[in-house]
Amino acid sequence: MSGFVTHLIVALLAGAFGTLLGLSFRRSSSEPTRARRARQRTSPAAEAVPSSEQRASRHRNRDRWLCELNRCEQAVRRAVRAADTVSSQPVRRGLRQVVHRMDAELPTMRTLVELGREFDSAAAEAEPGAGGVAPAEQDSSERRATSWRLHRRAREASAEFTSFADRLTEVVAELNAEGDPEHAQTRISGLRERFPLLPSMSEILTARQERRRPRSAEDELLSETR
Questions:
Q1: Does any domain span residue 30?
Q2: How many domains does the chain have?
Q3: Phi-psi sector, 50: left (phi>0), alpha (psi -120 to 50), beta
Q4: Distance in angstroms (rounded) separating the CA atoms of residues 157 and 109
């Protein structure tokens, strides 16, 4: 009987010891998990998440470039619809050739827009609080100046496309009212003379590089003597 009591006491003590050991192990294993979660909440990667204001700013930058591209594409579609209203097949063919040249310049506009959007994205990522390194004051001013020049070129391009579509629509209205084939060819030739509507991308980039090129001593001397 005494041996049974002894075994019972030993079993109870062993069970209590095992329970305490298990609780201690569970507590020690959960502490690193909580520490990792705390570090994740305060990690630089979490702090580098752009705020809603920064995301809205990037969205506005994308919209301003796409807005100019959409105006150019709408101008081309409007010119296509106007040319298709001409009843004379030779005149309509000539107008479609003009519209085709207009449409052929859209890739230049798209390239300009993509360049501007990528430039704005790179500038936004370099801003403090956006996960990048704060740029030097000179680099930041150069980015703003270049972005402004590119967007000004995009605005000029959309204005040129819109103006050309307006003029083509006016010519179509006059041709439909007159019905003179010889006069129609003269009007179509006048439209062709307005091409190219846009400079090439190489010319745009060359002009940008020329503006960024530092002035030499000779340039400074010529400027002073004027």
A1: no
A2: 1
A3: beta
A4: 7
Segments of the chain scoring below 50 in pLDDT: 8, 10, 42-49, 130, 132, 213-226
Report helix, strand or coil for 20. helix
Scanning the chain, the segments in alpha helix (DSSP H) are 2-41, 44-47, 52-83, 89-104, 106-125, 137-178, 181-192, 201-212, 217-225
What predicted TM-score, i.e. pTM, was given to this entire model?
A: 0.62
Q: Using an 8 Å Cβ cutoff, are 148 and 119 in contact?
A: no
Q: Which domain holds residue 90?
A: 53-213
Percent share of the chain, pLDDT over 70: 55
Residue 220 belongs to some domain of the structure? no
Residue 94 in tokens: 């000539």
Predicted confidence at residue 169, as pLDDT, reads 96
Residues 148 and 142: their CA atoms lie apart, in Å, by 10
Burial class (CB in 10 A: 0-12, 13-18, 19+), 144: exposed
The verdict on residue 29 lying in a domain is no
Tell me, yes or no, whether 21 lies in a domain: no
Residues 6 or more apart whose Cβ sits within 8 Å of residue 175 = 86, 88, 91, 183, 184, 187
Structure tokens belonging to residue 136: 């030097």
